[in-house]
Specification:
The protein is α+β, with helices and mostly antiparallel strands. It folds into 2 domains: 164 residues, Sandwich (Jelly Rolls), CATH 2.60.120; 200 residues, no CATH class. Helix content is 15%, strand content 33%. It has 6 helices and 17 strands. Strands 1, 2, 11, 14, 15, 16 and 17 form a 7-stranded antiparallel sheet that branches. Strands 4-3-7-8 form a 4-stranded antiparallel sheet, sandwiched between helices. A hairpin with a 4-residue loop joins strand 5 and strand 6. The two termini are 55 Å apart.
């Protein structure tokens, strides 16, 4: 009957509901991850040094990130630009008897309804660099086509065409005062085919998140591809000839030394040729996203709005697209490549009520608002988490006697 004996020499210790509150800091570096399992530093899981018990809150204390991101990349879907040539310069109509220019006209005319698609190099540009890149790429793609055409017809002018530099009629200029790009051609008209979605399918095999149309056919007008960064809306833009032979000009100073601001002039080798040009509707934007989100599974407490789209849900309710507890912290990008930035001004925290019993593993993701992941390459980043912990205390009773003096 000993099993009914309720006497014990190990009585239960009552919980006094008294706690010691203290803070513990955990440093997490992107290089701490299992690089074989998680080759991309933007998304990984990591085991913490110990079990953190009775967690009242977790706060982002400080961080450091490298500014080595690519504003333009294949992953972002914003490296492609397309155009068509129109109003071709016809040597015969201008009494120019030249075999090379006649061959160029014939070749371009046969490709009149086709897009020329350029793909810029991945990376980060300043305005002058992107203008030069676009100029060279647009001329190069037409040169490549004409070289292929002349080869196919066994043209005797191919060597002369290549020796003289190929096709070099396009000029893209940056107006530093207006902060806009100007596109021009010395002899032919052209159309920027910004709303041609097939260009992205042919280049990337799919339309990436950053250049997608919404499912119901409503286009997105921000961050949808290279044209949006250059200052275009999602519509075609046609270059028009200069009126009354009044050449386009930047009045604030020289474009090239000594040109007095006249950045586009007719090709002097083509009689009666005229220039075609336009100014981009909006200012150029080469900075890329101004912030990214730090997602930590089970710690997310930021509610995030998403781009508005027309759907049965949004048209029949007063609500819009949102995600509850989508991120743990929102981190601003405060510098441009190549640099490293540090900060510790953050109000991002997760509060547990009642306290979380135990935290040992974290699932981490760095992402932009559109869901794309930044590429950190071989650069490391680090952040510091502040854990506020409760440590329960044993009830103690003290009796203090004061002896008589």
């Amino acid at each position: 009957m000993s099993r009914f004996n309720t006497n014990t020499s190990h009585p239960l210790i009552p919980n006094s509901q008294d706690y010691t509150v203290y803070k513990k800091y955990v440093s997490i570096n992107s290089n701490d991850r299992d690089i074989v399992k998680y080759p991309d530093a933007s998304e990984f899981e990591i085991m913490l040094p110990q079990d953190y018990l009775n967690v009242l809150s977790v706060k982002l204390d400080s961080w450091t990130f490298p500014a080595n991101y690519n504003t333009f990349s294949t992953a972002n879907g914003n490296t492609v630009l397309s155009f068509k040539l129109t109003n071709l310069y016809n040597p015969g109509e201008n009494n120019l008897q030249n075999g090379l220019y006649n061959t160029i006209f014939t070749g371009l005319y046969e490709n009149l309804d086709s897009n020329y698609v350029i793909q810029i190099e991945e990376g980060f540009y300043n305005p002058e660099q992107i203008a030069i890149e676009l100029t060279n790429k647009m001329n190069s793609i037409v040169t490549d086509y004409l070289e292929e055409y002349m080869t196919s017809i066994n043209s005797p002018y191919l060597d002369t065409f290549l020796i003289t530099g190929g096709y070099n009629e396009f000029v893209v200029a940056y107006n530093a005062v207006g902060q806009k790009l100007w596109f021009g051609n010395k002899s032919c008209g052209f159309i920027m085919t910004n709303n041609d979605e097939t260009v992205y399918y042919k280049t990337f095999g799919k339309v990436s998140k950053s250049c997608r149309f919404t499912g119901n056919g409503v286009p997105e007008f921000n961050n949808w591809g290279l044209p949006s960064y250059l200052g275009f809306f999602r519509c075609n833009v046609e270059a028009l000839p200069a009126l009354y032979n009044k050449l386009p000009r930047f009045y604030y100073g020289n474009f090239i030394n000594g040109d007095n601001g006249y950045w586009l002039t007719p090709n002097i080798l083509l009689p009666n040729s005229k220039v075609y040009f336009f100014e981009c509707p909006e200012k150029i934007n080469l900075m890329g996203p101004s912030y990214f989100f730090l997602d930590i599974k089970e710690l997310n407490n930021i509610d995030e709005c998403l781009p508005y789209s027309i759907s049965n849900f949004t048209t029949t309710t007063n609500e819009t697209n949102t995600v509850v507890n989508s991120a743990f912290a929102k981190i601003p990008v405060t510098t441009t490549p190549l640099a490293q930035w540090f900060d510790n001004e953050s109000n991002s925290y997760k509060l547990f009520n009642p306290p979380a019993e135990r935290i040992r593993k974290l699932t981490i993701k760095i992402r932009y608002h559109n869901g794309l992941l930044p590429s950190f390459g071989n650069f490391e980043y680090s952040f510091l988490l502040e854990f506020t912990l409760y440590n329960s205390q044993i009830a103690r009773k003290y009796n203090i006697y004061h002896p008589e003096v």
